[in-house]
Design brief:
The complex is a heterodimer of chains A (373) and B (295).
Chain A lengths: L14 H4 L6 H16 L6 H26 L7 H16 L14 H23 L4 H21 L1 H4 L6 E2 L4 E2 L2 E2 L8 H24 L2 H11 L1 H6 L4 H23 L5 E2 L6 H18 L4 H24 L13 H19 L3 H14 L6
Antiparallel strand pairs in A: 1-4, 2-3
Helix pairs in contact in A: 3-8, 3-9, 3-11, 3-12, 3-13, 4-5, 4-6, 4-11, 5-11, 6-12, 9-11, 12-13, 12-14, 12-15, 13-14
Chain B lengths: L1 H31 L6 H19 L1 H24 L7 H20 L17 E4 L2 E4 H23 L1 H11 L1 H6 L4 H24 L8 H6 L1 H8 L4 H20 L1 H4 L11 H12 L14
Antiparallel strand pairs in B: 1-2
Classes of the chains: A mainly alpha (373), B mainly alpha (295).
Chain lengths: 373, 295
């Protein structure tokens, strides 16, 4: 039955066609173009911008994870930074120098420490989930916030693992086929890392998209839209909330494992107290600005958030009253942080579906042109 | 023994600050079922505002004026950012308040400056000594102020028309509207009250110390308080605030005996650990109403 009718690309004769991975020709072409454009981008863009974009790609992995939990399954988590931290420390511990100051196993094979970080973070998610599934809505948000505070303290104190406050430890070394990506060769460090991040992101994005259109994704949506109704229909609430937490934590762990590779070093203060919370809020901002319950929106939001410091640093040349000095006001660092807040407010008030919503409207306009609907 | 009582007294003082903040959270939650994550930022900006006002107007008038101005700020926030969202999912409104919190905190933080600012309170770090027990003046002042404010709030909700209207709206919004209660006024009043309470809490939290951005972290600790007490219970805010305050002070004081291996003080963690333990037993807090699902 599921035959395509020639010349009628949007006629679906089977459910499987409608739910296919890329269900229209324009999506297939569009995604291909975007991926190719992203892959050749490093050849044309300067290295400092490339580093920012690379960070954006890594953040996008974490944002997709949070979107699975918060966007698809409707469980608000302010604790994403905690799972990112678990991933960052697991990866560093697996790949770290065994004779170094901080804990390390010396396994530098890249997939090993990326997947290891994801699995340990997922385990942490599975440990937290039984408590979290008992709670709903804003109770859950506050409890996960507590997780960041407690976790930040634990990492600061566990000096063998984290190096301790103000000292920190080295991030994992990305070694692919015996070649250390952080050493400039035919291509620079930034280019090679960007490609590594891009590959991981594409794999993660495809996986997430497939989850979203499978049985699990439909169960998530049912739990989000009305959990009582979902339960009545036979969706096991605690099981699917557990799955959502585990998946989201896995993504957070993968994001954490790659987050500091470009810098090569990170300290526990990145995850403790106010900084940890800011990281969590940034992830929330990414999915809200990008688009709730969309994979492509998560990526767009993450790239925008990653570019914000750069945008803020360009501002003084346009707006002379903004300074670059940290002891004068308003300075670029304040503008940057305040912009997260403003973007969250403005998008939720005026464009609740985020960047994806804007894109969706543009697309619909041209698709039905010259009719308005 | 005297060490224990000293810790308890400072814990009660800290707890009174948490109580004031938590009352603001609960008042907003009762009126619109939303946790306002903007409270910590309002608390910080209240303290900073008072530090600017008190040299000119004297401390007491500055506190009242600062509280009133923060209440106005909260009103503006409610009108611009929250009111358009009424009827949307509460999670979305809560996230908006996170955005508001960030913006307010950055703007207020720009006024802290590099010189240490003090709010000019009359208590400083002076203590009364009763036997070996040391009781700080500022903690007594915080407890007295909290007690007065709780009494005023009780009277407000019991006797004034708007207080009764707020209770009616908290119970059943539609039924209250049908009886002629203006729900918009209820929202605005609850935000203004929460702003005022946050500013007062900020003053006591900053008393005796120079101001810094850490005030915001103190404000955050009011979140475990409301979860512990129950999101919709004013009594829970008072009891939860005092419990958290005392537990935190005890852990802070006996940290080196309890956890000799840990170098950073575990006091600031205590509120969150207590919250988690209580939630394991009672998912709706000590005094919160258990949510009943109607299908």
């Amino acid at each position: 039955m599921s035959t395509r009718v020639k010349g009628r690309p949007e006629l679906y004769t089977a459910y499987a066609q409608d739910m296919a991975f890329l269900n229209t020709r324009s999506k297939q072409v569009g995604v291909l173009v975007v991926v190719i454009a992203a892959a050749v981008l490093p050849l044309t863009v300067s290295d400092d911008l490339l580093k920012i974009l690379g960070t954006g790609l890594v953040l996008a992995i974490g944002a997709i994870g949070l979107n699975l939990l918060t966007g698809f399954a409707g469980q608000v988590s302010l604790g994403h930074a905690f799972f990112v931290a678990v991933g960052a420390y697991t990866a560093s511990a697996i790949a770290g120098d065994p004779d170094g100051r901080a804990m390390g196993l010396g396994i530098t094979f890249v997939p090993a420490w990326i997947i290891g970080a994801g699995l340990v973070a997922a385990l942490a998610g599975a440990v937290v989930a039984p408590l979290a599934t008992r709670l709903r809505g804003l109770y859950l948000a506050v409890v996960t916030l507590g997780l960041v505070i407690i976790g930040g303290y634990a990492f600061t104190e566990w000096k063998d693992l984290s190096g301790g406050a103000q000292v920190g430890r080295d991030a994992p070394k990305p070694v692919v086929l015996g070649a250390d990506l952080t050493i400039d060769g035919a291509y620079t460090q930034e280019q090679k890392l960007y490609w590594l991040f891009l590959v991981v992101l594409v794999i993660c994005a495809i996986f997430a998209r497939n989850i979203a259109r499978s049985k699990i994704g439909r169960a998530f949506a049912a739990v989000r839209d009305r959990d009582v109704a979902a339960g009545v229909m036979g969706v096991e609430l605690s099981k699917y909330k557990l799955i959502a937490f585990v998946l989201s934590s896995f993504y957070a762990g993968v994001c954490g494992s790659l987050l500091f590779v470009a810098n090569g070093h990170f300290g526990p203060e990145r995850f403790s107290g106010g900084h940890g919370l800011l990281l969590s809020v940034q992830f929330i901002a990414m999915i809200l600005i990008g688009g709730v319950a969309t994979v492509s929106g998560s990526i767009m939001g993450a790239l925008l958030i990653a570019l914000l410091p750069r945008i803020a640093s360009e501002l003084p040349s346009f707006l002379p009253f903004i300074t670059t000095a940290a002891n004068e006001h308003p300075n670029i660092f304040e503008i940057e942080v305040a912009t997260y807040g403003l973007l969250i407010i403005v998008f939720l008030l005026f464009e609740p579906r985020g960047l994806f919503g804007i894109w969706h409207r543009v697309r619909t306009y041209w698709k039905s042109f010259p009719f308005s609907y | 023994m005297s060490e224990l009582l000293t810790a308890v007294s400072s814990g009660l003082g800290q707890g009174a600050i948490y109580t004031l903040l938590a009352l603001g959270f609960v008042i907003i939650y009762k009126s619109m079922s939303v946790i306002s994550f903007a409270q910590p930022a309002l608390m910080m900006s209240g303290a900073i505002l008072v530090s600017y006002l008190s040299p000119r107007f004297g401390f007491w008038f500055a506190v009242i004026l600062g509280g009133a101005l923060i209440a106005v700020v909260a009103l503006v926030i409610e009108r611009l950012a929250i009111r358009p969202m009424v009827g949307k999912a509460v999670f979305v409104i809560a996230i908006i308040t996170i955005g508001v919190d960030i913006v307010v905190r950055v703007v207020a933080g720009a006024f802290v400056g590099s010189d240490p600012r003090v709010i000019g309170d009359p208590w400083g770090l002076e203590v009364w000594r009763i036997g070996g027990v040391q009781i700080q003046h500022r903690h007594v002042a915080a407890v007295v102020a909290a007690a007065i404010i709780v009494a005023l709030l009780a009277a407000f909700f019991r006797y004034t028309p708007i207080g009764l209207a707020m209770r009616a709206a908290a119970l059943d919004q539609e039924a209250a509207m049908a009886q002629g209660v203006n729900v918009g006024t209820v929202f605005a009043t609850s935000w203004a009250m929460a702003g005022f309470l946050a500013a007062i809490a900020g003053v006591f939290a900053a008393a005796g110390n120079p101001l810094d951005q850490n005030l915001w972290i103190i404000g955050l600790a009011a979140l475990p308080v409301i979860i512990l007490g129950g999101l919709d219970s004013l009594l829970g805010a008072v009891v939860g605030g005092l419990i958290i305050g005392v537990v935190e002070a005890l852990v802070r004081n006996y940290h080196s005996d309890l956890f000799p291996g840990l170098s950073t003080n575990t006091g600031p963690l205590a509120p969150y650990v207590v919250m988690l333990l209580v939630l394991l037993v009672r998912p709706y807090g000590l005094f919160g109403t258990k949510e009943v699902e109607r299908v």
